[in-house]
Write a structure and sequence with these properties.
Helix content is 31%, strand content 12%. The protein is α/β, with parallel strands linked by helices and 520 residues long.
Length: 520
């Protein structure tokens, strides 16, 4: 029981090499524009040959500034899954290749056609390329924080810096979007204490929890620990003695028993104490709970600390009484053919677990492709860039995303679930002269992928210049994506508020507008 309480009371963690300061990049949707000179330069060098698919008509941009709750997509989604590629993929070496750029910028990989006419992808992603018509791809994501600014992607914070991302207790932090949503849903009567089902969860562990737990983490900030995501325990281990190339060394060092490369068949997730011990029944549990409540009634009022503990204990009781989530977390209950379809890697099994949790009633799940050791820093490819993409990262992603898309669609879960595949930024157009090549942090341009409830699929929104450095159409800020998410979940991003540190009403996001081109 105490173990369960300690798992439910979550705390909070990103990574960062800062790029030189750049001119402000602001979203067209937010009523501003990219710096005029830079936008014209980008347009002059990169717009030709992009095709009409990525262009953003003026009428569409103007329409984006007036999101209305009367829209047929308002409230279309009931749940959200975020597949978060931490460290940040290179846009040029994945879904926004630049085959006509100089070799030192385009990289060594070739391009292939996709299921969308006129749209190319990197040769390392053939399965995703065949399924691109089933998703919406935004190629013109942009902001100004080059420092693994997960806080900019997943909270209301507009601008970050290395010192902020490196301090999980920085007083400037904003509530994680899952925590804000949990607060809003509670006002609607949806809570874990009422149903026994967590509202807001993170997999596979607390962000950076294995390498640098002092960094920014997705938590509730001033909303209070009651709204922190529930983070289960990863129960398993790596299965491959020889894994994928690591980030270190002139010759890529192969990782060993890294669960991101492969997990044992017994690997699963659990919240300790959330299931009754063998031989115990719900009647036994109810009797012990009644006895405890009788003792509590005599102990008196211990003030706020006592009430806080009572709240977490009630959450624990609710999970024990309703075992649906505990069963959903046990991914070993899934047929082997489904587990194999996702791939026996930690991100694959985490994505599969997210699907199971959605089926059990969890409303918000973020799956982080995180780090296990410093030798294999997720998508942060400063070193051994090409070997890591070719022999590790891209093949795994190319298996997992189509499997997740198929599975969610076949089970009818995409009708009411929004799926966002995002990261905190992209990577530099220029390849660094480091072992195996390297691309540094770059927030000037990157992509996001979206499908599910209310999303108009089969399209590419926005385009970048022919070097992959900046958008030349439809620049889209992370706050535009959050505005779109809130809209689809039935919360007007311009009117809905949560309390700030002093209890005053504060809007969900400081700026940003619904990207209507993303919607049906």
């Amino acid at each position: 029981m105490d173990k369960l309480v300690s798992n439910v009371i979550r705390d909070s963690t990103p990574k960062g090499h800062a790029e030189p300061a750049r001119e402000s990049v602001r979203s067209v949707n937010a009523g501003a524009s990219i710096d005029r000179r830079r936008f014209l330069q980008a347009s002059g060098t990169g717009l030709l040959g992009l095709g009409a698919t990525g262009l953003c008509p003026t009428s569409s941009v103007q329409a984006d500034t007036a999101a209305s709750p009367m829209s047929p997509t308002f409230g279309r989604a009931k749940s959200v899954v975020i597949l978060y590629l931490y460290g940040a993929p290179s846009q040029m070496d994945t879904l926004d290749p630049k085959p006509d750029a100089p070799l030192e910028r385009r990289g060594e990989f070739k391009t292939i056609s996709t299921s969308l006419p006129g749209i190319a992808a990197c040769e390392l992603l053939p399965n995703i390329a065949r399924n691109l018509h089933r998703v919406a791809l935004v190629r013109s994501m942009t902001h100004t924080s080059n420092n693994h600014a997960v806080s900019v992607a997943l909270s209301a914070l507009s601008k970050s810096e290395p010192a902020f991302e490196g301090n999980r207790n920085d007083p400037r932090r904003q509530p994680y979007i899952g925590s804000a949503l949990e607060y809003l849903w509670k006002q609607q009567g949806i809570s874990m204490t009422a149903s026994g089902i967590p509202v807001n969860m993170v997999l596979p562990w607390a962000l950076n929890g294995k390498t640098d737990p002092g960094r920014w983490q997705p938590d509730a900030a001033w909303l209070g620990m009651a709204y922190n995501p529930v983070i289960p325990q990863f129960a398993g281990g790596g299965s491959l003695e020889v894994g994928s190339p690591s980030i270190k060394g002139a010759t890529p060092i192969l990782t060993r028993f890294d669960p991101w490369d492969g997990v044992t068949s017994e690997t699963t997730f659990r919240v300790e104490g959330a299931e009754l011990r063998d031989g115990k029944t719900l009647a036994d549990f109810a009797g012990r709970r009644a006895l405890l409540e009788s003792v509590d009634s005599r102990r008196g009022d211990f003030g706020a600390p006592g009430k806080g503990f009572d709240q977490y204990r009630d959450l624990a009781f609710a999970m024990i009484a309703n075992p649906k989530v505990a069963h959903a977390l046990d991914v070993t209950r899934e047929p082997d053919r489904i587990r194999d379809r996702y791939g026996r890697t930690l991100f694959g099994q985490s994505a599969l677990t997210a699907r199971r949790l959605i089926e059990s009633g969890v409303k918000m799940i973020t799956v982080f492709w995180d780090t296990w050791t410093d030798n294999n820093a997720a998508w942060d490819t400063h070193h051994n860039h090409h070997p890591r993409l070719k022999d590790g990262l891209c093949p795994k992603l190319d298996q997992i995303l189509p499997a997740f898309l198929d599975d969610m669609q076949q089970r009818g879960l995409l009708d009411e679930t929004l799926v966002m595949v995002i990261s905190e930024h992209g990577r530099t157009p220029t390849i660094a002269n480091s072992p195996g090549g390297g691309r540094e942090h770059w927030a000037g341009a990157y992509w996001g992928m979206f499908f599910g409830a209310g999303i108009k699929t089969g399209q590419v929104i926005g385009a970048t210049d022919n070097q992959g450095g900046y958008p030349v159409s439809c620049p889209t800020d992370p706050k535009d994506i959050l505005a779109t998410m809130y809209h689809l979940l039935g919360f007007d991003p311009h009117q809905t508020t949560i309390p700030d540190r002093l209890g005053r009403p504060e809007h969900l996001i400081p700026h940003g507008d619904v990207v209507h081109r993303l919607l049906l």
